[in-house]
Design a protein that fits this description.
heterodimer; A: alpha+beta; Penicillin-binding protein 2a (Domain 2); Beta-lactamase; 2 domains; 5-stranded mixed sheet; 20 helices; about 40% helix; elongated; B: mainly alpha
Chain lengths: ~600, ~130
């Protein structure tokens, strides 16, 4: 007997097959079997469908759940945020997208970019232009009431009133509560030191692109656009020295009523420029207000016939090539006549002069004879080694190329020996002098801070022995020669005066001089080269009417070195002490007839 | 049973969705806060920039020089005013003026109490074997 039972409590029909079902049994059972078969089929099909649907739904839900869990764990649902955070490297990207700051060697801020508010008006929305103009002039004193009124009464719907307000001005304008006035944020390059570092710094245009000085040279780096983007630029300048230099130069410029002045301080071991001033100068915050003359960098762009300072190179060359010894000398009794020129001395001794005397008394005749003996070819090669015949390299675009004579023969060698006929920039001169006194190594100048160990482009120009003699000779000039006013007690200054007539229109102007003084200190172990120059100084009662470099440019250097010596932590020396006297001793070998001898 | 399951799942759905919405709102709130904080940071940075520029501007060397020449009696440093630490003489003490006795050695080293300590383990100050106060 077979049984087909519906279990009522069970949700699906359960078919219980008894063992007799397996055997083919009587006919009434056959009906039951068929029924059973179709029911089973239907039920199986339904169940399969249900299971299939359940599986599909389960897969969907599992997918959703896993996604939810994944999102919950990662914590971020926004793909865009993930992408932008992965791409932006530094977390300070928001503020550092500005043009980078420039600092001096001690970290004093020289240039920064500020977000400033600019005031503009929508004249259509200004209710009472008259009142608004009157109110605005009480806050912005430099604006003219009439011009504001005409601006506010115009029919435009946008007009600039004042660009780049200070935060306090913005606050005051805001508190006036005039309708129709709005602010727009703009970026402005700001130079807190004003005219102090104008020429090295340069300036930027309205769009904050550097158009002069280091601002131009490092434009890409400062803007953060190129590969060499940097956070800040550190210059080799020292603001304190820069200020002392500018202060002394401007004071002496007004004392001697000069039309211009220039000066620089340079580290002779690293080539770093600690101070570079050219007067008149300009305020980089508002470069448009200054003339081209103020923006002219006399140190690097201006080339001048430097005068007697070139005798340093001539003497070094004579001694280094061995054409003349320290005991040797030349007859300076008679002026030299050559090719229609007459070379004469400013302070004629009219006798035989030894090499130290030629240098000390700045004898043109002696220097010319000394250079002539070396010969034009070697002279040219020597000056080329000192970097005086090619455009120097410095990290500012305002670099002047030297003006060489069209021919370089015996006559040119003679005139160039005392600094006429070859125009170089004061930068080149100072670099050359640095090479002469630092032991003979030519080091490229730079305005960017350098590590003291890392030297670039060193080439031996003269021997260390010649360099030592040159130091003593330069000291001799200050001690006994033409540069006495450059003495700064304790700092063992040595240097050379240079007075040159300005060449204007192919002729020398007798009343227009370039007075310069190039020096190094302390002379027993030189560390810094100091250069000062006055353009067209005029004599006064204090100088007894003299306007030569010994009277006008040398005092600048003397004052300056006593000022900057302590800043540069140079230990003052006792100049009278035996050790120093011995270190600075140089035999003069004068053949001057002394009256006391009979 | 069926009803129970439905009710439970409905309640669960409601609870989960409520939780989800709550979370979402919280996140939105936090993101708003973050944006505000970031804005505050950049504003502060900008202020710091301006203040630094202002500070440098007020500390220009020419301004400092004018102020120091007005208020301070300072002149150029003369060479004799500069010395190294080695050059500063060691302070000489006048033995008569400062005759403070200096102990030769630590006085505690030779210290011995007037009465010798009692022998044996440490005793309380108030306790004696005799039973009375010391």
């Amino acid at each position: 007997m077979s049984e087909l039972t519906w279990s009522t409590k069970s949700p699906r029909p359960r078919i219980t097959l008894t063992p007799s079902l397996a055997q083919n049994l009587p006919d009434d059972n056959h009906m039951a079997l068929r029924l059973e078969g179709s029911a089973k089929e239907t039920l199986e099909q339904g169940r399969n469908r249900l299971v299939m649907a359940g599986v599909i739904f389960a897969i969907c839900f599992i997918a959703l759940a896993s996604r939810l869990i994944g999102l919950a764990i990662s914590g971020i649902g926004d793909e865009e945020v993930i992408a932008s955070e992965a791409d932006a490297p530094p977390p300070v990207a928001t503020t550092e997208s500005k043009r980078a700051e420039i600092r001096d060697r001690n970290g004093v801020l020289l240039a920064t970019t500020l977000t400033t508010a600019s005031l503009f008006a929508d004249p259509k929305k200004v209710l009472d232009p008259k009142e608004a103009a009157a109110k605005l002039t009480t806050v912005l004193g430099d604006l003219n009431e009439a011009t504001i009124l005409s601006k506010l009464a115009s029919a435009k719907n946008f007009i600039w009133l004042k660009r780049n307000l200070t935060p306090s001005q913005q606050y005051q304008v805001n508190s006036l509560g005039i309708p129709g006035l709005y602010f727009r944020e703009e970026e402005k390059r700001f130079y807190p030191m004003g005219p102090l570092v104008s020429h090295v710094m340069g300036f930027t245009d309205v769009d904050n692109h550097g158009i002069a000085g280091v601002e131009k040279h490092f434009d890409e780096q400062l803007n953060g656009s190129g590969e060499r983007a940097s956070q800040e630029l550190i210059l080799s300048l020292d603001v304190r020295i820069q200020h002392a230099l500018r202060d002394e130069l401007s004071r002496h410029m007004s004392i001697f009523r000069a039309i211009g002045a220039a000066g620089m301080v340079m580290d002779i071991k690293t080539g770093e420029i600690l101070g570079m001033v050219s007067l008149p100068d300009f305020d980089p915050n508002r470069p448009g207000d200054f003339s081209g003359d103020a923006k002219f960098n006399r140190i690097s762009l201006g080339v001048y016939e430097m005068g007697s300072t070139f005798k340093t190179f001539t003497t070094a060359m004579g001694l280094d090539t061995g054409t003349v010894g320290l005991n040797g000398g030349y007859d300076a009794t008679e002026p030299i006549r050559k090719g229609g020129f007459r070379i004469r001395d400013d302070h004629p001794k009219k006798r035989w002069l030894s090499v130290p005397e030629i240098y000390m008394y700045s004898s043109n005749i002696g220097a010319a004879k000394m250079a002539d003996e070396v010969g034009p070819k070697r002279h040219k090669a020597f000056l080329a080694k000192l970097g005086l015949l090619e455009k120097p390299s410095l990290e500012i675009p305002e670099i002047g190329a030297p003006i060489l004579p069209p021919r370089w023969n015996s006559l040119e060698t003679m005139t160039i020996s005392f600094g006429h006929g070859l125009s170089v920039s004061p930068l080149q001169l100072s670099t050359g002098i640095a090479a002469i006194v630092n032991g003979g190594n030519y080091i490229k100048p730079t305005v960017v801070r350098r590590d003291s160990e890392k030297r670039t482009a060193v080439r031996q120009v003269i021997s260390a022995k010649t360099s030592d003699i040159m130091r003593r000779l330069m000291r001799l000039v200050v001690e006994k020669g033409t540069g006495g006013k450059a003495a700064a007690p304790g700092y063992l200054v040595g240097g050379k005066t240079g007075t040159a007539e300005k060449a204007v229109g192919g002729r020398y102007k007798r009343d227009a001089l370039i007075a310069s003084f190039v020096s190094a200190f302390p002379m027993n172990d030189p560390r810094y080269v100091v250069f000062a120059m006055l353009d067209e100084p005029k004599g006064n009662a204090q100088t007894h009417g003299f306007r030569s470099a010994g009277w006008t440019a040398a005092p600048i250097v003397g004052r300056l070195i006593s000022r900057i010596g302590p800043i540069l932590s140079i230990q003052p020396l006792d100049e009278e002490s035996e050790a120093i006297q011995k270190a600075m001793f140089i035999p003069i070998n004068s053949r001057e007839k002394k009256l006391a001898s009979f | 049973m069926k009803l129970n399951l439905t009710v439970i799942s409905l309640v669960l759905v409601a609870a989960v969705s409520f939780g989800l919405y709550q979370l979402s709102y919280e996140v939105q709130e936090l993101e708003k806060d973050l944006k505000g904080l970031n804005k505050g940071i950049s504003e502060n940075k900008e202020s710091v920039r301006i203040l630094k520029a202002e500070w440098t501007y007020q500390n220009r060397p020419d301004v400092l020089q004018a102020l120091s020449s007005k208020h301070l009696p300072l002149l150029l440093i003369a060479p004799y005013q500069v010395a190294s630490v080695g050059e500063v003489p060691y302070p000489q003490v006048d033995p008569e003026q400062y005759s403070v006795p200096v102990p030769r050695h630590n006085p505690r080293r030779d210290y011995s109490p007037a009465t010798p300590l009692p022998k044996g383990p440490i005793q309380l100050a108030t306790f004696t074997y005799e039973g009375n106060m010391q």
